[in-house]
Amino acid sequence: MLDSLRGEVLKANVELSHRGLAKHTFGNASAIDRKSGHVVIKPSGVPYDTMTAADMVITDLDGKIVEGTLRPSSDLATHIELYRAFTEIGGVVHTHSHFATSWAQSLHEIPCLGTTHADYFRGPVPLTDSLTDEEIGTDYEKNTGLAIVRRFAELDPMQTPAALVASHASFVWGPTVSAAVETADILEEIASMAYHALTLDPGGEPVSDALLDKHFLRKHGAKATYGQAKRP
Fold this sequence. Notes:
Layout lengths: L1 H17 L8 E7 L4 E4 L15 E3 L5 E3 L8 H10 L5 E5 L2 H8 L9 H4 L14 H5 L2 H12 L10 E3 L5 E5 L2 H24 L8 H12 L12
Antiparallel strand pairs: 1-2, 1-5, 2-3, 3-4, 5-7, 6-7
Helix pairs in contact: 1-7, 2-6, 3-7
């Protein structure tokens, strides 16, 4: 199982680079095997085009290395906090993609201005509170994860599977690591659309709740009509 997961995590990290979501080494992806409680994550600072599946690092939910000879991503502790809090997720992706990061650095959430956004996020993409000097100085990466978890105290992480970390960048998640990569790509697209829409009309208003719910629920609701029915 973990060998297979190593392959999936390698593919996810390479895909982030190929899609232009993670330039240089600005990003990482991980996955969790819920049965064993083990996390597979990209090694720190290793270029995407030279990584192999064997380079992926396996840790437990305390961050202790179980398998691997390389140092895990410096964002491991953030991923772990998300896996602990959001028990339905199976993969986490962190990138510094251009538009999503611009929103995070400007300290603005991404408003839901249109139906493309509403198809994937049931409301604005939320922004965390800024970390305090103490939080930055002690367990910075863990506190980043905790800031995301606090922001989702009254939100469903499966209906809004992304967060902007104030002055930092985005973290997204999904049932699998490949799904999280797809969401990271969609997040960058809607971040770009929102930026350009508000450039054209700074007074642009979010979509109505009715239109938001219509688009989100027809794709993700219990009676979703988007796509094809599963064959028996």
